[in-house]
Amino acid sequence: MSTILTSEAQEQLNHIRHSRDVVHAYSPAIQKLFNLVIDYVDDAEKAGQGGKKVIWAGVPWAMPLIYSTGAIPVAFSELGRISGQEAITISEDHYQMPAETCSMVKATAGEWYLRKQAGSSITRIFGSSSACEPYNLAWEVMKKEGFDVYTSDVVYRAPGVEGGRYEELVQYFVDEIREFNEWLTGTREIDKDSLHLEITRKNYLMRRIREIMDLRLNHPFYVKSLGIMYLLNGLTHYFGKPEEYTEVLDSLVEELSLLEANEADRRRAIPLIWTGGSGQEFGIYDAIDNAGGALLGFVSSPYAKDYNEDIDPVESLARFQLESQMAGASIYRRHVIEQQIDKIGARGLILYGYLGCSFGSVTREMYREYFHNKGIPSINLEGTFQVGPPSGQILTRIRAFIEMLS
Ligand code: SF4
Fold it and tell me: From the CB of 134, is ligand 1 less than 6 Å away?
């Protein structure tokens, strides 16, 4: 099936095309990136129709493993880009989800329903349990709807878990990884050679991202906010096309390396760090660009350090997750934010979350206070997971925030 877009989602698609053809007209690498974005879900559907194993996957740690089995993961985040009010209405009316339920839960569940009705070839869902009660309910709803749903336990390493306790946690997680492999392939035996190759690939791509982020310090406006957001999102799932995504990063490094140093841009840019998920209200990114902000730091996708290629690859997968900012406790992300503040000379933080997410709002408030006490201002933004225009109030707040920093 080809995705039939609502008018809001079509507008969003036009936004991406405009960014590709006009805003980034000078960059073949970013143009190629946006082509990957645009084709991701439709091409995955086609691959599914052609007999390839394709799953909806909302669990970042699993992506190298999924690719190592030959399957294609379709990240939940891309469901947001193609879903709109219709999906929300399905969740509220058909599934009777309360209006105040998080927009991510409503948008994904509603979109899965709509796609199933339209004959989607993707009928398996891999999500995580325990972290989020609304999503746990959504999994049950999706099972009743006929989807094959598998959920892994939440990855959480409490602060202070070291030594023997940490090793037990690693073994617990390794066991979970094998269970997931069984759901995906029918066996707990993992193809370690293939997984090793995927880990090597991921390390290469993270090094490329580090190079790009370093080069952007001298060319902060070359890749605009929407572009860098998708570049970083792609580091998790490669848009279903690892080789093409690799080409994008290679070409972008080359483009940035050939540029003359631009001192005026460097002085004009207001370095910012984005924390939290990616907003689908693309107008937010335009507002940042237009106000002179440059998103030079991110904490959602880990790219600061490599997987260990010298140990068992399954264990390497577990240790990478448990030793990165994705290990659950907000203190891990806070460390990464602090490192990035120093590295890019950040003047402010954008703390972004989805409407209706109580977990996120508590974390953002903790960050706000912690960094405020360190003299780093932040702005707390809440948006929708599904597409839609940002409210005028959000845009005004962003403009005012960046003006205050300049
Ligand atoms: S944004 Fe929050 S409430 Fe929504 S799915 Fe994620 S954790 Fe759950």
Answer: yes
Task: List all residues 6 or more positions away from 77 whose beta carbon is below 8 Å from its beta carbon.
Answer: 233, 237, 277, 278
303's tokens: 């790219």
- How far from chain centre, in Å, is Cα 396? 25
Judged against a pLDDT cut of 80, whether residue 381 lies above it is answered with yes
What stretch of H or E contains 150? strand 148-152
Between CA 83 and CA 3 the distance in angstroms is 10
Question: How buried is residue 161: exposed, middle or buried, by Cβ count under 10 Å (0-12/13-18/19+)?
Answer: middle
pLDDT digits (tens, 9 = 90+) for 58-86: 899 999 999 999 999 999 888 888 888 89
Residue 262 reports pLDDT greater than 70: yes
The count of other CB atoms within 10 Å of the CB of residue 168 is 11
What DSSP letter does each residue of 280-344 carry, written as one string?
S-THHHHHHHHTTEEEEEE-SS--SS---TTS-HHHHHHHHHHTSTTSS-HHHHHHHHHHHHHHH
Compute the C-alpha angle 222/224/225, nearest 5°.
150
How many Å apart are CA 209 and CA 36, to the nearest integer?
17
Location of structure tokens 């902000």: 293
Q: Measured from the CA of 353, which atom of ligand 1 is nearest?
A: 1
Binding site membership of 169 for ligand 1 (Cβ less than 6 Å) = no
Tell me the residue type at 230.
Y
Burial 231-266 (b: 16+ CB within 10 A, else e): bbbbbbbbbbbbebbeebbebbbebbeeeeeeeeee
Residue 56 pLDDT > 80: yes
Ligand 1, atom 7: nearest CA belongs to which residue? Answer: 132
Angstrom distance (rounded) from CA 401 to CA 406: 9
Radius of gyration over every alpha carbon of the chain, rounded to an integer in angstroms: 20
Q: Which of 340, 345, 350 is nearest to 379 (CA)?
A: 350
